[in-house]
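Quarterly update, task 2.4: magnesium ion-bound model.
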Amino acid sequence: MITVIGSLKGGSGKSTTSFNLAVWLLTQDFTTAIFDLDPQQTLADTAECRAEDDQHPVLEVDSPRTRIKDKLIEADKAHAEVLVDIGNSNMSAAKTAYLIADRIIIPVLPSQSDVWSLQRFLKTLESLDTKPGIEIVVFVNRADTHHAVMETRETLAVLKQLPNITVITRVLSQRLGFRRSFSEGLGIFELEPRSKAAAEFLLFAHKLYPLRRGGKKPPQKKKTVIRLAQKPAVRKTPLKRSKKTASKKTRTK
Ligand SMILES: Nc1ncnc2c1ncn2[C@@H]1O[C@H](COP(=O)(O)OP(=O)(O)OP(=O)(O)O)[C@@H](O)[C@H]1O
Ligand SMILES: [Mg+2]
């Protein structure tokens, strides 16, 4: 199954979602091919950080410039899952991915302009000759964690009214862990396994890849209670690592 993470909006969380899903799928015994079609190569860079640290499972990211359609089809035949991160600075590659996708997952930030952008994107997809039966899945990323902030609930309410899409009501909140997990090359559930961010992500991932398709059981809710005192310390910043990794990826905190 070819799943493309896409949106018209920059910075909506496509690469963060792709990366975490890719690592998670590999830990769940799904054979997975991972593609980064964004010239920014964010996903490929993160995979490189992971490789530098010898983290397993190894994330092999392919970034083809030519024969993209053929390569996606070949990967689909050879793997249980294909995951594609796109970037809007290469619209032609993104379009190729949308046309071959079985499913497009769209992260939407909880704001009016992001909902408008989503609607425009859905119209664009409608105008394309996408696969029959393609599933369009939308979720809210970077949801506000403060209950008094209404935008996430309002955004979800609007999303539910949009036709021909599946809305995942499990949001991913705005959490520092997601940013850190990126620079460390670790899935959020590896970096902070007991965190709220990891719990949110695992529930989200299990919604997208249910048990019947081969994944392991989702975590029980009570196991994901956070005990702040037991939270693992955040790993060293790259600056401290620079002696050993002078020629390696420069990472932010
Ligand atoms: N749930 C989240 N909580 C906190 N930060 C997040 C979250 N999701 C994404 N981010 C951060 O937002 C920024 C943009 O995310 P990301 O690079 O995944 O977006 P993108 O859609 O791939 O962007 P682009 O369009 O440039 O490819 C990154 O700094 C990332 O760490
Ligand atoms: Mg990206």
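Highlight for this quarter: The first strand starts at residue 2 and ends at 5.
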